[in-house]
Protein: Cell envelope biogenesis protein AsmA
Amino acid sequence: MGRLKLILGGLVVLVVGVIVAGIAILKSTDFNQYKGEITEQAKAATGRDLVINGDLQLDISLSPKVRVSGVSLSNAEWGSAPNMVKIKSFAAEMKLMPLLFGDIHIVEVALIEPEILLETNKDGKGNWEMGPKEAKTEEQSASSSDPAKLPAVNKVRIEKARFIYKDGVKGETTSIVIDMMEASADDLDDPLNVLFKGSFNDHVVELAGQVGTPEGLMNNAPIDLDLILKAAGAEVKITGNIQEPTKGNGLNLALSAKSDNIARLAELAGSHVGKVGPFEMAATVSGGQMKYKAGGLNIKIGGSDLSGDITADLSGKIPQIDVALSSKLLNTKDVTPQSSEQASAEPQKPAEGTPAKAEKLFPSDPLVLDGLKAANANVAYKAETLIANDFTLTEFSKKVTLKNGLLNVQPAFAMGGGVFDGQVTLDGRNSPAKLKIDLTGKDLGLGNSLKETGVTDLIHEGKTQIRFDLNATGTSVAGLMASLQGKTLINVGEGKIKSSKVNFLGGDLITGVFENILPSAKEGEFTPFSCMIVNLDFNKGVSKFDKKIALQTNVMNVASSGEIDLANETLDVGVKPEPRGDTADLGINVGGLASMVRVSGPLSNPGIGIDAFETAKAAMGVGAAIATGGMSILFSSLTDKALADSDPCATALGKKSTSAAPSATENTTQEKQPASDNPIGGLLNLFGKSK
Structure:
């Protein structure tokens, strides 16, 4: 027994001596001599140059720690910078006992101030795609035939990191700053806790929760997710599991999000818009094998709602997208509001004497017809009530189909007792593209539609008929407009309009015209109208029209003639008002002056000016009046009245305008009037002044 104790004691002393001797040897060893071997191994594995500028240090204990500073890994040959990775300092703490058996179990890995550049070239190849430059020898291939055993890691900590991503295809750069990031687990089969705090475009972003287990992540095993993301005032929750995380298969996730102002998320991308919210969203994401579905989608924005399903099949040569959405109420103001800054800002006017810059409305960039062939889609949307610009549309629906480059859009809705439907087709299967517009509106109640949203001071009544029958061919939007052929008709029936609020018809331009031709426009009074007509035919993008735009009010008839050139994006339109009936003053009155109004210039910034011909004519009339003692005014007024169009709307519609026939009494009286050799006397006889 005593001998056994001596043997065991000797063994213990021997082991302890060996350990002490080993530690002494390790501590006295200069590990920097192994830098060359380490960099050679990195080169063989990645094909990149690993540089270690600092000293390699090893702290020996039951948990040995390796530390090194000034580490960099070179970038791809085509990269925009010499290095893909630069690290100020790196440290790894390991467990000692597993090392004795050839296993590596890392307690913690710490990266301090790493700078990581991820980028793609013009072909979409990433700089993270690495591999040895030279082919492996047979010995190397044999030694690597067995998969290398990955080290076990309990915790990864990153501090003050900067990630830069450059998209070589799109030419876009994204920068992310990480203040602190941790991923830790008590054991390899315990849940992996993640914590992230950083910033994106100066907005704080936080992520916390659990992502599977370290063992599951290393072996591509199913993982469970339970994450909360906070950014720009929004909170997003993700729960569920992924069966094959590296392949993106077997998704079964539940998503939810909420925000008081979801528009703040746009600031993450550098955009600034007005408030949109409050916002709530819930949905499930499922699928795999390149087939995915966002189901049970339920979104609420302000007072609007949206629900339905979205599926994407990416498994085929051409992706297939199917969307089925619906709303009880969708108000465009809830989802596309104007920012308070934009609403309050006064429009900037050019300095006096400086002509306003004319900008093109129709882009001349070639249509990306291949984009129409990049995917096939079926989109269906329905809304019980859709509110757009205060107009209420009911039973709204829109069907969009895209197949092999052929785009078809079919809108339909009811409005104030009338209906609207039709289709717009863009055929991009061949170049040039072909556009066809076929839309019809019947008895659309403008006034009744506005009343449903509480707007009662803009338009009353106004049953409207609409007909668009147009087609075009071109390789750009400008080309399509330049080749436009067909007919457009807008026919608004009897009603009344508040002249001071005609901005919805065309902004300051229309307001300016109305103020010139309608006395009540400056007073903000309602102006009763019998009809408003726009009846234009286009030939190769040009509409030359004579009295095809008309407005008839209680005191004024207005007809418009001129030319609209979509190819050159110009217009030259004269507006001719004439007082109605016996209430019209004779001579050059408000109506006469209004006849000088002319709208001309580029479509993007037309101006309201004076018609030179009408001005000269009016001036000649004044001179003649002085010379003839006023008799020329009387003659001109009677001539204008005789030639005036009593029904400009009928004229605009292509119907013959007829004036009211004189009464029998008037005919009898006129027959009894003797003829006069004096033309002035003859004119006076018409008024019973001749004796």
Remarks:
- The longest strand covers residues 105-119.
- The CA atoms of residues 564 and 571 lie 4 Å apart.
